[in-house]
Each structure stands twice: as C-alpha cells, then as structure tokens.
Amino acid sequence: MAELKKDWILSPEAFRRLLRWLDDGSDSGGERYLEMQRRLTAYFSRKNCLCSDELADETLNRIARKLDEKGTITEVSALHYCYIVAKFVFLENVRSVKPIQTGATELRNSDSATRRAGGVSEIGTEDLREKTFGCLEKCLGQLSANDRELILEYYRGEQRAKIERRAELTTRLGITMNALSIRACRIRNKLEACVDKCIRQT
Amino acid sequence: MPIAEQPESSELLTRYLLGALSQEEAERLDERSIADDEFVLRLDAVENDLVDAFVRGELSGESLERFESVYLSTSRKAEKVEFAKAMLRFQERSAAAAVQQSGAKTPSGARRKASDDHATWSWLAVPRLELQWTFAAATLLMVFASAYLITKNEWLGRRERAAHEREVAAERRATDLERQLSDQRSASASAQKELEELRASVPVTESLKTITVLLLPPTRGAGQIPTVSVTPGTDRVTLRLQLEGDDFPSYQVALREPAVNRIIWSSPRLRARLEGQAKAISVSLSAGLLKQQNYIVELTGIPTRGSKELLTGYVFRVVLK
Hints:
The structure holds 2 protein chains of 2 kinds. Chain A is 73% helix and 0% strand. In chain A, helix 3 (52-70) crosses helix 4 (78-95). Chain A has helices at 12-23, 31-46, 52-70, 78-95, 104-118, 126-142, 145-154, 159-173, 177-201. Chain A contains 9 helices and no strands. Chain A has 2 domains: 1-122, no CATH class; 124-201, Arc Repressor Mutant, subunit A, CATH 1.10.10. Chain A is mostly helical. In chain B, strand 4 and strand 5 form a beta hairpin. In chain B, helix 1 (10-17) crosses helix 3 (37-55) and helix 3 (37-55) crosses helix 5. The radius of gyration of chain B is 31 Å and the shape is flat. Classes of the chains: A mainly alpha, B alpha+beta. Chains A and B meet through helix 2, helix 4, helix 5, helix 6 and helix 7 of A and helix 2, helix 3, helix 5 and helix 7 of B.
C-alpha cells in the first residue's frame, strides 16, 4: 500500500467522503457504513481478534485517509477494497511486536473451563441476562406485528420441528425457503442491534 | 465451477464459523463475508441457527467443543449467545402461557375441576384453623385468577389490534394491486397502440432480432441452469426476471461474469411490472456483450430511504450457435 500521512485525523469532510464512496451513488443515510462496520467487526472476531471493534474502525479510517489523499478509489469495488484493507490490518496486527491480541488462548484458559462446568448459564451475569431479556421484550414490541410473528415462528422449536415449521411458513407466505431465511435473518439482525443499543443505554 | 455460482452448504458455513476449514478455504470465505451481500446474509442465517442450537443443547462432540473453544472466544459472540438465550426464554414463556390457556379445556382440567368441587363442600367439615387457611388460599387464588384474566385480556387486545393491522395492510395491498393492474392495463393498451404504429412505420427487414428468456427466482439446491442460445444475427437479449415479492419501489439489475467476478453491465433504476400472476423486471442487453459461459444476474432492491439491498442472483448459461 502507498505510504500515507502519519499525522492524519479523520475530519467531518473525510468521513462524509467515505460515506458517499460506500453508498456508491445512493444515499443510505449512513446505513451502508454501519453495515460495513458490522461485517468488519465480525471478520476480525472470526479471526479471534479481541479488539475487533477497534480493528474495524482502523480499517475504515485507513480507507477514509486513502480517499482523502487520492480523491477516489476505482481499481476495485468498494466492498472488495474494504476486504483488502481489512486483511492488511489483520496481518499487521498478527505480526506487530505488541499485538492488539489474537488470542483465543487466554479466554480459553479463563472462561472455557467455567463455561464447561456451568454450561451456557455461566457466560453472562444474572444482571446482564435480565437486561437482555427486558430489552428483547421492548424491541419485539417495536417490530411490526408481521415481523414479530415471523421471527418468533421461524426460530421456535427444536431441530426437526423447527424445519417442519419453516416449511409451513414458506407455504403460508408463498415464498421460497431461501427468501424466508433471508427475511428472518434481516429481522433478527435488526432485533439484535436494537437489543444491543438498549443494553448500552440502560 | 466459479465460486459465486453454487451457494455454499450450511455444513460448510458452520465449519467456517467453527474455524474447522483449511486456511485457503477460510480466506476465500473471509473475502465473501465482507464483499458479497448475499453470502453475508446466508452466513448470518447459519450463524443464528448455530448459536440457537448451542443454547438449546443440540450441539455435541467436536461441534460443541469447537463452539466453546473457538467460536466463544470473543465477547461479541457471547453477546449473541445471550441474545439467543433471551429469545429462547421468551418463546418458552409464550408457549407456557398458551398451555395454561388451553389447560382448562383438557380432560385433566376437568378432573381438577371435579376435585375442586369436592373441596368446595368438604371445607364445612374441617377444623377452624384449616378453614382460615382455606379462605386465605382461596383469596390468593382469586388474586392470581384476576391477574391472569387482566393479562389475558391485554394479550387478547394486542392480538386483536395486530389482526386489525394485518387486515388494514391486506386491504391497502389489495387496493394497490388493483391500481397497479389498472395502470398495467392502460399501459399495455397504449404500448400495443405504439407497437402497431411502429410496425406500420418500420419495414420488417430492419427490425431488431431479439431473444427473450424468463428467469425464475433461484431456489435452494442444485437445479437446471437456464440456457440462452444466441444465434448469429441476434441483436438483443431480453431477460425477464420473475420476482418472489415486490418489496421495493425500484430495482437495479447487474450482470456479473462469475469467472472473473466482475460486473459487466448494470441497468438504471427499474420498476417491477405485473406479468401474469407474478411481478417481473425486464432488461434488454446487447447480444454482443455475451460470451459462451455462465452469468449471474444480480437483482438489487432500492428503497425510498436507506441503503440498497442485494436480493438475489439468477444464473444462466449462454451458448453461442
């Protein structure tokens, strides 16, 4: 990658340019940026980086800096460019003398034994559990009646019963299984984001 | 086979999430997890099912071990598990409430009632202290019963409101469809007239040679890939994409060459039209653009506000005759 200015700071103008570039001609009102941040965070998280949020921000900052210096990036699509930069950020993080952290090991040592001993219930505290449940009830209430019904039906039941219920849903809604799974997933993502926000606010 | 042509199986995506793939395979999917909108949605769906399976105790053996040692290694994942647990708890409570409501109608409910009737009369024979306890229990029962009735009443009210909302939405949709049908009819009539005028003014020998192909919404699993045979002298190829639903005011269509993963053509904003029983979008391309290979037609929904959404991809094969 080309050498970039060391003392660069993300200005409001540079941030707006990044949003426009990610939107690729349409106006998503910042949603495309948030979606890319979510994807990058998930990517770094899958790579077992503990500071996945920070690495996602670092990736987007580097892209904003590049846009600020070059005006635009046209060699590859915006989405592919994000992946290329994310990969660099990840490799740098792994190779750096003081890595931000790529260690599942530590958590494994500290948390895993506890989790095994106590099962799922050991992952969060009772307080967090109650907050999550309260926020879920609140966020479910904010969904439309159709979306609420769909998500509760789609994720209800175990294994075979779940599969049969989903097949019934496709017949009832007149859509394919693929379309149903995408629709349910979108609602769940929305719900998870709402619960996450609600927990942080409380 | 080009990577974007066949959707990855849920098993492969689960192994990816559990860190069980080779580095090469994982990197290929890493790229798609950021750069491929449709893949991201599939991966999210598989991840949700995986987390739910863990919470319900359905994982075992290597999957469970990997889930605990690899997947749960960051706090973000733990948050997903907490969310899944809350969902499960909510569903269990809803199910319990439903069972409670139907309980009074079951034979065991009737047996309970008979037993209660017996108790109603036998209290006359018990000593005074027990009588007081009986009254206290009855009062408590009444309090619970009142609370239950109030809750049930609220629940019924909510259900009624939801049903009303659905009814209003259905009516609105029916009105919209009627209006669209009427627009379609008048558009068809004027198009027919225009076509007749055009036919009259243009000699037959100068008309363009067009091939039209109908592409159905993709379904899960391997199916026959539609083939478009382009004969010499063909000017244009019209693709009619049948939609699964019409959830967006406008759409955009892009033609991707999977072999090089490159968009070679994209349409302006288009509206869906009713064709027969289903909504469809038609695009017309220059035949010269097409080579003998497979293509993916990517359909993107454009909302009034918010970001575009990649909805699906229609695969077809071109054969040059």
